[in-house]
Specification:
The protein is mainly alpha-helical. It is built from 4 helices and no strands.
Length: about 90
Amino acid sequence: MEVIPIEIEIIGLVAASLTTASFVPQVYKIWKTKSAESISLAMFLMFFVGVLLWLVYGIFIKSVSMTIANTITASLALVIIYYKIKLKD
């Protein structure tokens, strides 16, 4: 399998940083307000499974940016799912 050139990985890392960081305000809002009422559990469960599959794919193709981003994104999505279930809005 071909190794991804560093220039392409840098683009991937920038994109991954931006899309992954976009979940931080949502996690913070849920944590701060102790409410996940407006969050769709079904959507986040499907999203979480999709992110896990992207993570596996990133590992298979040896993409550092995909592996790091999807590990962090899956963790943030899992926090949102946890609060949605725990808070039972």
